[in-house]
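The record is kept unedited without comment:

——
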Amino acid sequence: MTEPNEHDRGDLELEERSSLRRVAGLSTELRDITEVEYRQLRLERVVLVGVWTEGTADDAENSLTELKMLAETAGSEVLDALVQRRQKPDPATYIGRGKVEELRAAVEASGADTVICDGELAPSQLRNLEDRVNAKVVDRTALILDIFAQHAKSAEGKAQVELAQLQYQTQRLRGWGGNLSRQAGGRAAGGEGIGGRGPGETKLETDRRRIQARVAKLRRELAELRGTRDTKRANRQRHQIPSVAIAGYTNAGKSSLLNRLTKAGVLVEDALFATLDPTTRRTQTPDGRIYTLSDTVGFVRHLPHQLVEAFRSTLEEVADADLVVHVVDGSHVDPLGQIAAVREVFAEIGASQVPEIIAINKADAADPDTVKQIVAKEPHAVVVSARTGEGIDELLNAIESELPQPAVAVDVVLPYDRGDLLNQIHEHGEIDAVEHRGDGTHVSARVDADLAADLAPYAR
């Protein structure tokens, strides 16, 4: 059997993912496992609920629409949605007492088995709301973590997601029935007597200790994997290869744009967080200068802090880049809000000072007035369509103009047997003029300091 080529790999991954979608109706009841007790998400039939504390009614509706897309990406069917206007979420149940009764009625009427809240809930809020609506309650953070767990493919991606999940679960461990009982001392401890007395250790404490041990192991594994990534990054820097990171809101079309620019064959799916593992490809400017393009994990409003921490080594691809191509979904109802959300994450990972080009994607489906509004606010914006190819040449020219400029000007005559040096100038420098004469190739260019030292013997 022949191996799939790189351009077909994304299609094969998409087919595999579709075949593994959750099947509605399968039981996902709570169960006790040996390593750690946790609540498995059950997301077949859900009701959404949000608290509107600030912004406009459109902002609240957009947030709930995004939650619906997240729920559907996780494999669920959304049956109903409720939103409540409050100054702040209720400290006991997230939503007010009256809204809790309305939510319970909606759950009973629709036959839903899960409630998803548009926010991160405290453990007590989760417990109280579950008790009162008589259904599983999941918050936005757990939902996003579940999507990441479904989509992670590489060893590093899976370890990062598991680390984020364990960090989230540590403060939310719960037991049921006998699982909360203590290990008794004295006679109740099997007659052990001295040494067996005392309050013992609760099941939750045991689980928390096991989680901490697992977290420590995952951190060691990620440190080793990060070393490999750092080595590759250092190798690129040593060879003076500029790096360009493609970043932006989830489902803005980053992978599609990478495929269009480099024919990378990365998986493309109309879903949130379709690709988590970064992909780096070498490409070159029209005059032959080499640089790298890296696709990164997508961002979202209120990206869980656990994910930012767990994926920090991956997100550092953005912070260490020479240029960021910030992809924006021009067809979205609130593209400016998406830009603001992405820049918040940039600030958190130390990437705010990296030069940025705004690529307004999906121009073929976007409202022209919305595109004009973005262009008016963002001076370094280019309108593109990864699907049709519109604006791609303009984007490539913008990238080329924003790449870091080599620092040293050289004027040399290279013998014809030193074509290797001429090739290095093409790949890593900027040529101003080149002329082939009888005594060799006359070149005027700008190059980095290391290459300038190699060219020094041929200066004229």
Remarks:
- The mean pLDDT is 78.
- The first strand starts at residue 45 and ends at 52.
- The CA atoms of residues 1 and 279 lie 26 Å apart.
- The two ends are 57 Å apart (CA to CA).
